[in-house]
Amino acid sequence: MTPADVRSLFPILNERAYLFSGGIAPASTPMRTALEHHLAALTYNTGDLYPRFMDETRTLRERVAALLGTAEDEIVVNDSTSTGSSLAVSLIAPKPGGNVVFDGFPYPSSVYPWMLPPRDMLERRFVQPRAGLIHLEDMERAIDDNTVAVSVSHVTPAQGFRHDIAALARIAHDHGALLLIDGAQSAGGLNIDLHATDIDFFATTAMKWLLGPAGVGFLYVAKRHLERQPPTAGWVSTVQTDMEQLRLLPSAERFQLGMPNLMGVAATLPGIEILLETGMDTVEAHMLDLTGYCIDGLQKRGITVRTPRNPTQRAGVIAAEIEEAGALQPFLTSIGVDTYFLRNLFRVDPHIFNNREDIDRLLAGIDEFRSSQ
Ligand SMILES: Cc1ncc(COP(=O)(O)O)c(C=O)c1O
User: Fold this and answer.
1) Which of 73, 82, 115, 120 has a Cα-to-Cα distance from 62 of 20 to 30 A?
2) Structure pTM?
3) How far is the CA of 20 from the centre of ligand 1 (A)?
4) Does domain 3-27+279-371 have CATH number 1.20.120.450?
């Protein structure tokens, strides 16, 4: 599938320049069809759905594993990035005198689980950026033999900065620390091979770059950690024998509790199939072309861009600063351009279904807005 083929599957693009994939994905026609089939099955063939749930979630797990470069039994299907991050933290034993290392751009759901007892006793270290970038050598200086974990977003949402997670994994492991990655802004946008990077945990959501719905998420747990004791247990996590013995499954399913969100599972598969059929190398290259093109266009207009120009340090998120954000946002929405603003932060997140014309429409919109002021 070419980027143009993918574009034809997203009806919103006939109307609007949708540039906010780092927030929430628009529905594709295959997603709508899958939801309609699911609803028909739920209405008229309900009994069939119950035994089928195992097959559907297994297919989803297998497709996510193919996309992220993992084994199928290392994928937990859950409901969000935050759930995955929190579960990963709960699998790591605190140690007296220990510390956890974050960068200066953490997402709250990566930090808060460490503030709950008993892990609140760990020192929390934040490595601040220099000239807008997190430097690997600064991370390395903060990590020591008392570090139990290093936790960063693969791509940071308010800067669009991309970490070299393979290098971070090497540094963390040299000190006996584990590496937790929040992949909400990278899975489905970047060509990721988690086995090659050798990280320990990777949490993400279906609703952004994976082109799925909210309410479905995934946690990758490296095989070497699958024996860890889950904080909770349900019927899906166990070999169901008797009530005298708790026998947890050897796979990542041991971290799941009950019936998953079947409608969400149905809605998630089509987006992942689209990405697999397109090829993640094509998706990444297309996205980097668009983000580079957009950064140039914004900078030409004197706009401060926080995201690095170097393609190895960015992904699909472009973060910029615009003082007139409060008035620009409704103007762009009114001319059919969807971006994101939070105070003076301006975000543009192009995906495989966008093209340079979408970016041109955004840039022309900014020009038009400014000339009308
Ligand atoms: C880096 C990052 N992590 C986590 C989240 C939240 O994801 P979820 O709602 O799946 O927990 C976001 C949402 O924008 C994000 O950008």
Assistant:
1) 82
2) 0.97
3) 13
4) no
